[in-house]
Specification:
This protein folds into two domains: 150 residues, Endonuclease Iii, domain 2, CATH 1.10.1670.10; 100 residues, Endonuclease III, domain 1 (Orthogonal Bundle), CATH 1.10.340.30. The protein is 54% helix and 0% strand. It has 14 helices and no strands. Bound molecules: iron/sulfur cluster.
């Protein structure tokens, strides 16, 4: 009992008490209307909010409330890749493709000890480097990308990782997402928003985009999220995606931003969400 009550009171602290739940009958009618207009988990949610999630609130207002709520939910949200400088972060980010940050953090201490400069990476033996990063997966293409990017950094940027989107994006194997990670976390520049699998999923569930393509989602988010929070925003969504809003069974009954999410109630009602314990959860 304690955990649900504790979470719920946290939610009230975070979101205020002005968004009361609608009576069950009304909720059901709203849910039926919602279901008629969308598939569960589909991103077409922002125009069909159940009233229990405050239909009068615009998407922009919800984002404003989320921006206030997230720092209380995740006061320590940060990039979970270990690094000490932009070069290390660039390497770690390339390694993190299709791999967990935890696994990357297991590989990088040895790597960072052996390869310290862009030239070190550029001159590394392909076979030796592949073997060092093998456990992160896709090790052949990652090795090629890292060596090519580092060669360009050594030859064209004096060995220093560039700090603009244009220059980073021009490095071999460095896409917009990687560039955003480096700019936001190593240079503290909000030039864009990192859109990974968690940010895609949560942006759709929170009704902030109807797109599936990462660059289009980033454009939608950049219009909604205040510029000073662009880097934080991806940390918040990634942390929530890893800790609560799982891909398969989101933990909606304990979600700290339940009342700001148009998908939560639908997921609970349809069984998409992790099974709540009715006697313990005040949401139902
Ligand atoms: S209510 Fe559920 S779907 Fe919405 S953010 Fe929370 S965990 Fe994710």
């Amino acid at each position: 009992m304690q955990s649900c009550l504790r979470d719920h009171s946290l939610e009230f602290r975070l979101l205020g008490s002005g968004h009361g739940m609608a009576p069950p009958g009304r909720v059901n009618a709203e849910l039926q209307a919602s279901r008629a207009n969308m598939a569960v988990g589909a991103p077409h949610l922002q125009t069909r909010l159940p009233a229990s999630h405050n239909a009068r609130m615009t998407v922009r207002e919800r984002v404003a409330k989320l921006v206030k709520a997230w720092p209380k939910v995740y006061p320590n949200a940060h990039c979970e890749l270990d690094f000490r400088n932009p070069l290390e972060l660039l390497v770690a980010t390339i390694l993190s493709a299709q791999c967990t940050d935890k696994r990357v953090n297991m590989v990088t201490p040895t790597l960072f000890k052996k390869y310290r400069t862009a030239k070190d990476y550029a001159n590394a033996s392909q076979a030796e480097f592949e073997s060092a990063i093998k456990s992160t997966g896709f090790y052949r293409s990652k090795t090629k990308s890292i060596r090519a990017a580092m060669r360009a950094i050594a030859e064209e940027h004096g060995g220093k990782v560039p700090d603009t989107m244009e220059e980073l994006n021009a490095l071999p194997g460095v896409g917009r997402k990687t560039a955003n990670v480096v700019l936001g976390n190593a240079f503290h520049k909000n030039e864009g928003i990192v859109v990974d699998t968690h940010v895609i999923r949560l942006s759709q569930r929170l009704g902030l985009t109807k797109h599936k393509d990462a660059e289009k989602i980033e454009r939608d988010l950049m219009k909604l999220v205040p510029h000073e929070h662009w880097t934080d925003w991806s940390h918040w969504l990634i942390w929530h995606g890893r800790r609560r809003c799982y891909a398969r069974r989101p933990d909606c009954s304990n979600c700290e931003v339940f009342r700001l999410c148009p998908s939560g109630k639908v997921f609970l009602q349809t069984g998409v969400a992790k099974k709540p314990v009715p006697s313990r959860c005040v949401f139902l």
